[in-house]
Amino acid sequence: MGEDGRLTFRVGSAEPVLVGPEEILVTLDPAATKPVFTVYAINHNRLKVRAYAVEPSDWPAFKTYLQEYNGQDDPPEPPGRKVMDETVPLESAADVLTEASIDLSEALDGDFGHLIVIVEPDRGISLLNRDRYRDIVQAWVQVTQIGLDAFSDHSEMVVWTSDLQDGTPLPEVTVEADTARVKAVTGSDGIARFNLPETEAAYLVAQQGGDVAFLPRSAYFWGDDVWQARPVKDELRWYVFDDRQMYRPGEEVHVKGWLRQIGGRQNGDVGLVGDAVSAVRYQVIDPQGNELVGGQGEVNALGGFDFAFTLPDNANLGFAQIMLNAEGNLIDLSGDRYHHDFQIQEFRRPEFEVSARNETTGPYFVGDEAVVAVSANYFAGGPLPNAEVTWQVTSSPSSYAPPNWPDFIFGKWIPWWFAFEPIYAEGVYPPYGPDYGEVDVETFSGVTDASGNHYLRLDFEEASEPRPFSVLAEATVIDVNRQAWAGTTSLLVHPAELYVGLRSESTFVERGTPLKIDVIVTDLDGKPVSGRPIEVTAARLEWKYRQGSWREEAVEIQECKLESALEPLTCDFETPMGGEYQITALVTDEKDRQNQSQFTRWVSGGQRPPAREVEQETITLIPDKETYQPGDVAQILVQTPFSPAEGLLTVSRNGFLYTERFHIREDTITLQVPIEEKHIPNLHLQVYLVGAAPRTDDQGETLEGVPPRPAFA
Questions:
Q1: Please, which pLDDT band fits residue 430 given cuts at 50, 70 and 90?
Q2: What are phi and psi of 67, to 5 degrees?
Q3: Rounded to the nearest 10 degrees, how much is the dihedral formed by the CA atoms of 428, 431, 432, 433?
Q4: Hey, which of 98, 186, 242, 666 would disulfide with 192, CB 3.0 to 4.6 Å?
């Protein structure tokens, strides 16, 4: 011990490895001069390659073959006609990952076609090494120039055909569904629409001349997903609650609820159930699955119901359920069943009560202090002295908006359409997400005094960023019988006495149009304050490749310095380039404490980080405002990861309302969606893009002298 030592590890050769595409359906690069299927190997000198010519109608048999291959020791031959069976030598160094490009030209009958390609080590897969079954690559490979996309709702399908190399629409393409006997021809925009078949359709086939493209409903060979028209029913929605959530055996439980009918089609709305539901039948199931009690409650004209029942004295403890079934004329309604959970528990009746409070009065500011207190008193009368007290104090980022300024943003703004963190390609950081910030938890302990009180002083140190923080103080008191009860109090800590608000007419502008940002400074009560310095900056966010990841960095920072007034002031920022602009306002109060507000605005144009792989990329949609009224026209800014691009907009409301084709010449486009009264309460917009993008290296730099890759988003 205490001295350096040396250990020697002997490392042998790597285990032989053979890997290929992750998916069993592969479309080869349409820009390649030869149809090449690529696999990767370590410590393999020769590969055995077989190829079978197939048609789309062989897809079900191929899935069956894969199922049997993974489940049997002696699987059958794959479907199709064998057109290739040869051994390919590999020139590779030991323990080095080697790329093997397999030319399939001789296996094809012309420039297009479909093949089942099987690549395995030359030694084969014998019964003695079935544990190495992963050392085999099997894929359905299609060689085509047709890009085929399909979108469906409950009764209609929209098929979009495009050129795989550049995304241009392909007219006069015949589209068929396998056994469903559906046939359509695309128009000049590459779009074909038809009703979904009543029978099952497992895949689509698109044909133009001798080129045939194939799209299955799912490439998962253990699944049987299909396209099929489905009946659309209105749905019952339940809202159910009980009076206490936790009950002892022998106690009475009171339950209330309401029912509403939700239309299932495009013109569906929220309404009363009317005569469709006359009663609700219930069964109470204990934690062991035993039925405790049952009954029925009538549903009134407003869809409300209530009932009560008494739990048996010997009921099992734990989580119980109330199984609810609607009764009436339910032929055209779904959602006729529902369940509601509650607890059955035995517990000691509390002997004392605990309450927490703020001993000092607010408002509270960074750099100040506050005192919180907890009081414990017996229900029988008198305080609880010398009892153990444990405090858990949690501080977390919060928000505060002074009253009377509803159009202004105070604090850090997160776009409302990013309710959840968006998904980006690996290595790309999302610009928005849950604003968790810094959460700090500390624990303190003590005992109550003779009056049953305990006091805790909190010092509010300077935070890492100028924003309000919420402090939650929970005190748990334990008596001599080891019975514990808790009380909680909270307070808001402001970074300064002043708040600065930001406002703009729209979330985005066209490139070259100045961003006009209104600024107001108020106190905590919303009263405007004049004479305070304000620093407002606008920084364009540009994607940079740093340490193996794409990140947004602030560039071309513009400044606007103001002195606050009783009315909002305006800063104008130039927008010579498109993209995201981060607007930040900083105000300082008389005690040199700072507060900050920040939001993002968009300018048409700008670029997304490039993707190296041919994978689904992300489109950003920015609405010009949060809510709309009938008669408005929603302006939707579309930021695309590549351009030029061909786009398809689908507007849905429980199914397709309409689709719209468009072309993007530069990096953005603004789509217009008229809002009608029948669209209340919302519309669902989706944008799909196809096109081409430059090929890049690992650092995101464009490769010169190579054709662009297919791109879709």
A1: very low
A2: -60, -45
A3: 20
A4: 186
